[in-house]
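2024-03-11 09:14:02 INFO receiving multi-entity request
2024-03-11 09:14:02 INFO entity count = four
2024-03-11 09:14:03 INFO echoing inputs for audit
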Amino acid sequence: MKKVVLAYSGGLDTSVAIKWLKEKYDCEVVAFCADLGEGKDLDYIKEKAVRIGAEKCYVADVKEEFIKDYAFKALKANALYEGVYPISTALSRPLIAKYLVEIAKKEGAFAVAHGCTGKGNDQVRFDLSVAALAPELKVIAPVREWTMSREGEIDYAAKNGIPVPVGKENPFSIDQNLWGRSIECGILEDPWVEPPEEAFEWTISPEKAPDEPAYVEITFEKGTPVAVDGKEMTPAELVANLNKIAGSHGFGRIDHVEDRLVGIKSREVYECPASLLLIEAHRHLESLTLPREVLHFKYIIEQKYAEIIYNGLWFSPLKKALDAFIEETQEVVSGTVRVKLYKGNATVVGRKSPHSLYDVKLATYAEGDLFDHKAAVGFIALWGLPTKVYAQVNKKEY
Amino acid sequence: MKKVVLAYSGGLDTSVAIKWLKEKYDCEVVAFCADLGEGKDLDYIKEKAVRIGAEKCYVADVKEEFIKDYAFKALKANALYEGVYPISTALSRPLIAKYLVEIAKKEGAFAVAHGCTGKGNDQVRFDLSVAALAPELKVIAPVREWTMSREGEIDYAAKNGIPVPVGKENPFSIDQNLWGRSIECGILEDPWVEPPEEAFEWTISPEKAPDEPAYVEITFEKGTPVAVDGKEMTPAELVANLNKIAGSHGFGRIDHVEDRLVGIKSREVYECPASLLLIEAHRHLESLTLPREVLHFKYIIEQKYAEIIYNGLWFSPLKKALDAFIEETQEVVSGTVRVKLYKGNATVVGRKSPHSLYDVKLATYAEGDLFDHKAAVGFIALWGLPTKVYAQVNKKEY
Amino acid sequence: MKKVVLAYSGGLDTSVAIKWLKEKYDCEVVAFCADLGEGKDLDYIKEKAVRIGAEKCYVADVKEEFIKDYAFKALKANALYEGVYPISTALSRPLIAKYLVEIAKKEGAFAVAHGCTGKGNDQVRFDLSVAALAPELKVIAPVREWTMSREGEIDYAAKNGIPVPVGKENPFSIDQNLWGRSIECGILEDPWVEPPEEAFEWTISPEKAPDEPAYVEITFEKGTPVAVDGKEMTPAELVANLNKIAGSHGFGRIDHVEDRLVGIKSREVYECPASLLLIEAHRHLESLTLPREVLHFKYIIEQKYAEIIYNGLWFSPLKKALDAFIEETQEVVSGTVRVKLYKGNATVVGRKSPHSLYDVKLATYAEGDLFDHKAAVGFIALWGLPTKVYAQVNKKEY
Amino acid sequence: MKKVVLAYSGGLDTSVAIKWLKEKYDCEVVAFCADLGEGKDLDYIKEKAVRIGAEKCYVADVKEEFIKDYAFKALKANALYEGVYPISTALSRPLIAKYLVEIAKKEGAFAVAHGCTGKGNDQVRFDLSVAALAPELKVIAPVREWTMSREGEIDYAAKNGIPVPVGKENPFSIDQNLWGRSIECGILEDPWVEPPEEAFEWTISPEKAPDEPAYVEITFEKGTPVAVDGKEMTPAELVANLNKIAGSHGFGRIDHVEDRLVGIKSREVYECPASLLLIEAHRHLESLTLPREVLHFKYIIEQKYAEIIYNGLWFSPLKKALDAFIEETQEVVSGTVRVKLYKGNATVVGRKSPHSLYDVKLATYAEGDLFDHKAAVGFIALWGLPTKVYAQVNKKEY
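2024-03-11 09:21:47 INFO inference complete, emitting structure
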């Protein structure tokens, strides 16, 4: 019998999808569930998938792989979509797609399936990742395909013996992994309304944060964070750790009207304590160690990087080429950054590096200044020459 | 007798320069002093210039002109050099240069002069602004030219009856105007050391800021802020006002290792409560009102804009062309942004506009969704087609 | 009875569409046909449309409007998609769409229609132009919608008394206007095969071009060509004229594997004698009159410009903002460019301008050199300072 | 005795420099002369250097190294400064500088020297290359430093027994290597005057080129040309070969008003048959094999690449990072390009590759079309959605 491999979360949509796929495609469903740091009970989910009708359910703790091979690459790119969002959800989709494809090959499935709707960004990321890794595989998106409303889904679940979540529904739609937590829907759909406290789980409100600041020192090796306050940690440990520290000081909230690839603006709220903190620290270390020409051109690379991953092109030759650029720049991005955390603020207050290009003997205005002040005259003469010639030729009003 | 027009601040360097210019160039010195919001005593400075030997001293309160014609243009460009510095000092130099040139023409001077050293950015901004406005004028930079140390200057002043500042010297070098305050030198020259509280004047430390948050609503018309909490103000009033409010909540500090045009890195500390607050608010309003294509390409424009002004090209055809681009985009950037101020944070928590492109009927996941979910299938099929074809042709490992 | 306004070319597709629209939508069809320089017989086309069943047929000679308001704006941007294609067809679609919308408003139509297929770029340009100008109008694309093959269309035409073209079919698919002629299909679909001579109509083969070169001088005013060999002409006359001259010398052929917005590569052949000639001349004049900073940043603007118009965004705020940038730069782009035409080559051999920034007294290596050679020492010292500091800090292998 | 290593060409400037350096710096001079394809008589030059007073003279045939490690990297970047100049001279300077540094280290020299003037680009390239490779070495530029006119040099030579070139002086200033030949000065300094035939040596005039076209097929492996007409060649052989073939058909002349780093415009004439031909062929192969997203972003990379190398940053971290990007993209750029040469034209008329992304089954308008035409409807709906929403919200006039 033919098979479909389904990205299974344990929630209503993908639970209904197990049954729906079997009926619609007359196939067996192999479920897959990954833990990226949401704190999932993988055993329970596995058992539930099978109970509902999946032939089997693969589970995997991919936290270390996710942070090491996905999030930390984005960190080297200081990847922030539209300057604010650390693309946490966008980074997780290609990883899950990679597992879906691997399992599909192992199981001989003809298709993979995911629970995305037709209006979000995630469908694009799944569909394109699969197209890049296994263009011969079909991708099925049951929720995009069926015409059931939420009530219809609940009816369908009831009729098919699928457990329906009881009690008060979460008023928000949530996706989370170690790199960040996204919060959508409900009251947040009005961009004039301040996000209510109950939207947040990882960050305390600045008002309730400790009255004493905390300092944290992050050590980087070639662009990768390796230690906090001198203590070495694995990638996922380090991020989990910083999520806790920074979140406990009220740092990491984002409130943004965002442009989705599918052509609409949506109001997105995020909690990203560790990722925002690490990007801020990494940027300061780059300011110290990268020459101006690299730094300024890297901004262009960074913007493109965030954009294409947001748009689903993680597995693409452009992404590989941008990575090659970025990787080359990180060779000297080693050192330590000191950050002060206090009631919602994460302020870099110190940075040092064996590769520091800051040279106090050139920069100082005190004794010991080695800078050649006379050179400036010649420099400005030539740097300003086009301006001068232009002014001589064209009597322009400003 | 030939004349030089000198940008005069009242401090030691430019006071010594009055005498030095007269001797060195055998000329009369006409001084000029502008108030850009530093809270200068223009009468006192005028009297001092003449007392030291200037033939006369022009003074001008240019606060409104500065904010309206310089700072608010940069605001429309969200101009932040290296992503962090609102180019406040850089914006003031061309304005002063414009006055120097006007006075030089009126007075028939052969040259203008400024008090910049040979290693900062400001010499470039003065020299290029004058070259653009009056390429026939010579520019003299006495401090860059003479070889006196600070002690030498004090001796020279003493010998020439020039008042020398007494008492403990300010350990920092300061430049300020309504758009921001820069702090350099002293202990700040070590980028690992946290800036001490005494470096700051406009911002209280977050720890000492009020325990209650404040909300402020800023209204923009075509990209220009026109009102605070519904109260209309002139440009300079509005900025002065926001400097106070935001500074009193501990917001607006910047700590940055910066790349100067003259090829060195320097550690710069700034206080920019109003400018940072306005840029943040303006950006959020743009997210709401500008289409994605404009928004994303405008990032490239913005980076270039900040860079060329930082580098002295305010009066240049490239600046004019970038302004034309930006001005065209601002037509729809009208509306109100709500910002919460609390202990160092300025968080945008609401935004609204008659030109809002956020359409709840498209974005909502609730009933009333007008988005065509089926369209996504076709969209992704074509958006992903190059990825698919590439994967079919090239068996690439990711 | 409700109405549709159809972009009518007189060919088989749109002739069939008249009948098909009436049946499918139970509506009247108002036809519109524009002459953009294809040499159409508008009277005949008008009569044909009505004969087939259109309620009426508007016709318009829009050559001057097209060149002045569309092509010459693209010229100022040196707009070449992927560096080679002067977007001639892409420029014509928004103009036609504008007329469709105007007529639809006048006639009270509920929709406009065009004859594009589902795999080209033109459907995008029509659909988006209408969406921008009149978002309330429906856009119908009969050829994209119906499922008839070419044979099916011919049957349908025969049954419905629609004249069918007789004789040998053109082996290529052609679109043309004064700015260029596109040739697709047939043997051209193999990118290894050299385009055969019969594909070309506007350009003689270089081998058959005259043995004597010709020189042509083109005069620009603020970026717009106004005269050829000193003779003033209207925009459309000038372009028609240059198409003849340059084409008769074998210049203007393009052979390109192009990336369509819909995600595929296609092999495109073009003849664009006037547009390529004008862009080449215009670029040389810009090299003479624009300062380096403007010139180099304008390349980024130009690439974006060509890309968004290719992708259908003529009527868009980004296009308006790019136009504002470009227009501002053209103020000084006046002067004359001399081009030598010879057997397929158009070589700029001279350029002059009252705004020339080329200053022989600075550039010359002969006597009279005013360039300050010593300034270079200071210039290089500072321009190279980051390189030197980087090398001192990092012992890098190259 | 201390030593200086001088880049020695055998011409008047560097011959005089041997003596001048010895006197001025009281040092020994070690000469170095490289053959980059100028057809130099290295034995003669070596002997001459020693005869004039050099302690010794190193010579090296670096043609293969130059093309392989410098020119072919630039080819992968399609590097054309200001869109036209293949940076041939700019590429040679860092290579020579590398040898100067190596010899300086071996000989224990305290400085290297070159014969550049103070107003060209080459001084920058030498100075920065040395700064990057050996920041501790001093760089001396005698011609920039001394104040002799050409007549002064001739006098100096006569007095010091340095051979002076006799007979009619070349009216042009020439620099050449396998990647191109630059021609400056004399009548060329008037940008309105057509370059005279005697300026050219590598290219016949199109009028005198053969009446029969020639076809040449160039095979690339991962972006590097490896064979001509199926015949494998070493890099330098291949380029020398194409210079001959293309030059003999009148192809490869460039006439350009160029922006130098030192702030002036200069009129430059070049002959670059092989480099222009290879770049054109390489671009066409990239059009066939690179996905649109890579292709379009690579334009930005390419522009930056040409610019920074033109400006002397060959040995720089930015250059290395750009190379990493480019190298990654070239993996699939293998295949063959067919070029027709005829009287000044080099026209790509065919291209094929095992990595071709052109898929006739998607592109064809004939039977066998596999493209999903219906997908376009969904695609355009979402691609055009921002345009539509913008139009609904803002009644904008176009």
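2024-03-11 09:21:48 INFO post-check: The longest strand of chain A covers residues 28-35.
2024-03-11 09:21:48 INFO post-check: Residues 88-107 of chain A form the longest helix (20 residues).
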